[in-house]
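PROTOCOL LOG
Step 1. Enter all chains and additional molecules of the complex.
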Amino acid sequence: MAKDFFGRNENYSQWYNELVVRADLAENSAVRGCMVIKPYGYAIWETMRDVLDKMFKDTGHVNAYFPLFIPKSFFSRESDHVEGFAKECAVVTHYRLKKNEHGTGIVVDESAKLEEELIVRPTSETIIWDTYKNWIQSYRDLPILCNQWANVVRWEMRTRLFLRTAEFLWQEGHTAHATEEEAIKEAETMVNVYADFAEKYMAMPIMKGLKSPNERFAGALETYCIESMMQDGKALQAGTSHFLGQNFAKAFDVKFLNKENKLEYVWATSWGVSTRLMGALIMTHSDDNGLVLPPKLAPTQVVIVPIYKKEEQLAQISEMALKIKANLEAQGITVKYDDRDTQKPGWKFNEYEFKGVPVRLAIGPRDAENGTVEVARRDTLSKEVVNKDAIATLIPALLDEIQQNLYNRAKQRITETTRNVNTWEEFTSEIEKGGFLVAHWDGTSETEQKIKEETKATIRFIPIDSHFEDGKCIYSGRPSKQRVFFARSY
Amino acid sequence: MAKDFFGRNENYSQWYNELVVRADLAENSAVRGCMVIKPYGYAIWETMRDVLDKMFKDTGHVNAYFPLFIPKSFFSRESDHVEGFAKECAVVTHYRLKKNEHGTGIVVDESAKLEEELIVRPTSETIIWDTYKNWIQSYRDLPILCNQWANVVRWEMRTRLFLRTAEFLWQEGHTAHATEEEAIKEAETMVNVYADFAEKYMAMPIMKGLKSPNERFAGALETYCIESMMQDGKALQAGTSHFLGQNFAKAFDVKFLNKENKLEYVWATSWGVSTRLMGALIMTHSDDNGLVLPPKLAPTQVVIVPIYKKEEQLAQISEMALKIKANLEAQGITVKYDDRDTQKPGWKFNEYEFKGVPVRLAIGPRDAENGTVEVARRDTLSKEVVNKDAIATLIPALLDEIQQNLYNRAKQRITETTRNVNTWEEFTSEIEKGGFLVAHWDGTSETEQKIKEETKATIRFIPIDSHFEDGKCIYSGRPSKQRVFFARSY
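Step 2. Run joint prediction.
Step 3. Record the structure below.
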């Protein structure tokens, strides 16, 4: 275990908070609930963003940018939306400051009050549909497949780095379609893109399904989601894709002439993932020794540390290290050679272990003579000594293996902690152990709400392609046709 | 000239405004002064961002992300800075809305008033230096070379798409150094990066120099800038790089232990370019037929338009077109084949001309039979018919030629409109013709202010490596050692 560091079992929450700060990923700022994403954390987010951006473009989407501010009245237009989003938010009321005439510093200039307050966007459906109104006249203008990378603000009372912050970074896709069928297909396509990304890049196994009406996005007819299971037995919603029906088109009066020359409201979707994915990534793989990163998202995939006492030893080691580095880089692997003389090898070992660098190579004087290298894996913490000539083929394969191993480990955890429960007694005792409980539910919001109040568990998702099965609701005993997935969650 | 479109000479300002909207680059939004950057415009900005981002990383910088909001009191800490930035800005005063109990819609919840107002960042020196305070203890922590891509807000009264908007996108680099010399070198390096980018990618010739104290960034000891000359004879500041001395370190108490183990204030720079570059790009090259884009920043570099009457002609043309497309794409060229049957070729020609696609290939039935292609250049509007087998080598060379030609044209304009003036009479009459006037100035802010009031011209920059030359200030007649560059500007 890393020094002065909480283990996961000791205090999972504190383990997470300290890990994020000590691994140089993010920290709290002077502004309540707003974080600073530090360069190491931002480099991981940048890779996530670049990979996702390419996946969006490969599925026909383009990027655009819409205003940070939304007129207050826009939120009232869609009645469900206002309930969900127009509550805790940052409100801009003035546009000027002036010198304090009666003291020091600066004060708000009361004469510069906005006629209508502006809301810092918590999500952009309203301003975007107000814009789409002017872009859409006929079916020829459809579909519109826009995405935006942006910051959004939701005034959360209890914040945690990456998981829940007042300001966060995200992408929000907003699409407009001529038919209901096409919009539903789009919403499904995008949840599948998120699922692919989570599994292939984050090495994070996920479950996919529909939200219950209680948990749906405010203004959506259907919310598709991906959910993952963290090491403490709590689920985490990692991405959502919403079929919005014609709700926003009606709220903003967006109609188009269809092929039959009739006016019709446009069909909509929206979908997003955020810097919350960073929290999911950290919690899925990391351990008591610090961060563990899947190779595909690691800013540094391989670090090489020289171990030496004399300068001439370093020269010999460096020659070998730089050859290995060049060779791996030619294969597209990111390699750092850390030959700083301000830190000892032991310090460096701890540092890179804590920061989750997937592979560490160490070369000492005897290695340089024998042509060997010590290869250490971050995921298993195992080490082996290999011939330097084997490195060029071994490392790419090892990175793949680590990526796969991380996925498998997490997958096993999900599988082991997902189980059917059939009675309320079983439910209330099993929920304390964490994981997904797969149980019958009578389909009502009241029951879901009661279960939440009594156990803090919510329906994380309703499986889409599951087998239907007759049963009785664990809470009300009323008939049910399908099991749904419950868990406590982030 | 494009139909229903103002020529540059008719009304340059209206020509610009209409061009931006009609070429699908950007439009005004429902929020005063905030623009929507449309997909075509955003694609150009994305390329700019990616190229610049790589240039920043190649010069050792990393990205990070700092909060959108800045506590009001932070602005008062640096006395010059508060004068320059804490005036016209968006002020967040509340964090909740509620249902209007006495009417419809939602209203600000007066019980949710912030103790200290938050300012939407107009620039981030203050919040970043408040953060750096915790990152810096010793010279070993230096330099810090961070950049951030972000949105910022300045409550401008008169806005114009891209050139001056309340919200805009930009990057801001903020670096911390152990020595004055190193910080100055950094500020110079970055203005050179901007100059390289402008000339090599935007094909926009620029002049480089120092701002006069009047025009300096609020809080800087020295502001380096790049300035370009638009077609209407007005200069445009395209990028700035500031040497901030120890001003922000002192304001936020950021000290470090130097190698001699003494506490010292940290030295700083900041530097930025914004979506304003889009305005510069548009105004530098475009003409009465619409947008003209340098190939290196064009989202589509080559468009292929088929001309046909019968379906079997299209089949034959498409076969040839798709081969050409694949061949050019293999060389890294972005090609669009527009075989939509909803629009006529003439419409397509106008469309791509207006959107500034550098090269258009047209293939008709006779071309398909003869194995020829019509190649049209957007920059010169010239056309030639070439053999299809020549296309693969001709197009890459042609794109380079267009890029160079655009640069040369703009360079010639700058050269022709930059001239020495030696008397006040000459100055006041020449300034009406636009361009840079190179004249002696007595070095005082008062004189600069007077010249601005009387002619609307400002000192755009003071050349760095110019020859010193004895002369008399054109306004005051007092002695001067150096000519400086005056112009009216955006």
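Step 4. Note key features.
The domain at 295-414 of chain A is CATH 3.40.50.800 (Rossmann fold).
Chain A touches chain B through 63 residues (CB under 8 Å).
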